[in-house]
Amino acid sequence: MELAAIASGSKLPKRAWLVVVLLAIVGCLNYLDRIMITTMRVSIVEAIPMSDAQFGLLTSVFLWVYGIASPFAGFLADRFNRSVVIIASLFLWSLVTWLTAYSTTFNHLLITRALMGISEACYIPAALSLIVEYHRNATRSLAVGIHMVGIMIGSGLGFVGGWVAENHHWNTIFIILGVFGIIYAVMLSFMLKDAPKNEVIIAPEKTGDKVNFFHSVKVLFKLRSYIFVLIAWGLLGTVAWLVVGWLPTYFQEHFNLTQAMAGLYATGYLYPAAIVGLLLGGYWADRWSRSNPRARILVPAIGLCIAAPSIFIASYTSILPVAVLCFMLYSLTKSFIDTNMMPILCLITYSRYRATGYGILNLVATVIGGIGLYAGGVLRDLHINLSAVYQIAALTMIISIVFLIAVKPKYIEPE
Asked: Is 415 in a helix, a strand, or coil?
């Protein structure tokens, strides 16, 4: 059944851009708090003796819990006020971050990582849903892109954990960020509100009925386009983790670089390219959507049509600058789908299911990401070099393009 919406004018609600800025800071904290532990292994192991397997388990437990909790966390944002879920999530994970500083055993650390997985899972679906409710067609993708830039900055600042641990104590940064997050959550309780209810949705069901989790999942999986999006997102998750997880090794082995230089080429050039891609992909989709309702689908598809051959060429070339340029181009154009995924969900489902839908995407991305990293290792054990692995990744991206193009928008919000 076709869906329709009535928007009260094209003017943005008050504080729409302020909300994006406020949440970009939260997104930065979200990723910084989760990732910094990986950069201070030596300091943590010196203070709390553990094996390498146990240290790896700290991140694995976070990912497993985060992934499993994501669909339920998304449902909370659909069922209750999104702003309340965001503030509660920030407060709780910041409290957990602060408590992490007082861990004295491996089991204590493991429990805090599991608790962080639960509390952080509530943030992304609620934040993106709130942003797209403040920003309609004219600015929706760019607003999401700016928020994703905050997340990207948080990922890039992960090294701060290792730097502070080397110069002070391993738990110093946990105390600082935990306290900052708690204070910021209190500030947001006065500044962050849900978007004005200026949208009327014509849905094929009684809108007075309360949303429940299993009903939401059932509705989502009845939508063919949502299934196509889920498959495309899963395939791209495999590629993303293959590229990011094995790229330093590829540069080191294929171009005989040192570990330090390989790490620089694998991260120092890709993050800036991804940030540009988030902003460019968001701006382009917003502009084009004024004349083409499929723009938010086509912009990511075009980006992937550039990203796939870029990976393929990078896997063949023996010229380092060419490989770096191709991987940068991949990072730039692949980001088009990151800034448009929630806007795509807005085109194919109702607002009351968006956060749940994105939570399921998070679950798939987490599971697929782990499979992708593991698959890369299996292929290497079978003596298949990384050039061939990246060629497989390029083919996987082409398959994802087919599913993405098959998505049909049904819910179009007029300007």
From this structure: coil
